[in-house]
Amino acid sequence: MNFDKLIKEVDRDNLPTHVGIIMDGNGRWAKARGLPRIEGHKEGLKALENILEFNRYLMIPYLTVYAFSKENWSRDKEEVEFLMSMAVKVINDKLEEFKEKGVRFLHLGDKLGISDELVSMIDKLEKETSEGKLYTLCVAFNYGGRDEIVYAVKRILDDFASGKISRESISNDIISSYIYHPEVPDVDLIIRTSGEQRISNFMLWRAAYSEFYFTSVLWPDFKPYHFIEAIKDYQSRERRFGKVVKR
Question: Theoretical Cys-Cys bridge with 144: which of 70, 129, 188, 234, CB 3.0 to 4.6 Å?
């Protein structure tokens, strides 16, 4: 695929700083082909790898993918176990590649409930890619937007109780500094595949002024040119952040 040709379709000076992707439709993709759901996840991983490779050229500074939500634990045990084993394999496969290409990895989510082996691997991947300058890949894994806010509130209460912060000092900026990896900026654009039009507990705090792009394309079929269509749509919008624009 000619990435250069695709990239020329967008304004490189008006790219979103942070794009979040709700990768939906793996199960439906598999069902439509009479395959087990895990085959859909395998194809979904290929789609993700294509987008990550494409972003080496497009250069969105922050890319967050919704890989496993808190609610996903209620899925069939076999599917959950497969997703956990796939996470281990992906980290093993991508560690050296990310280091070589300069991709920084960050985990957004709760580490409680994840196996010690996977937590250790996540920590290692974060540490060993911390100097990456190409772009930052955030993986929302064992993640929930409400849980993230609760996490921040608990930490604020701890610091309030110890006298580190006062009641009067609590503000939007203070809360932003207590969520997962506060250095990650708000999300400019959220893409959701598979035709569903809901946020599904994704990035609730950072999505306050996000633009949304919904596509009927199932995630395993999502290609770089679909990504470019989302960026073009984003660039066609006027972002006012609640302000009135004088013409």
Answer: 70
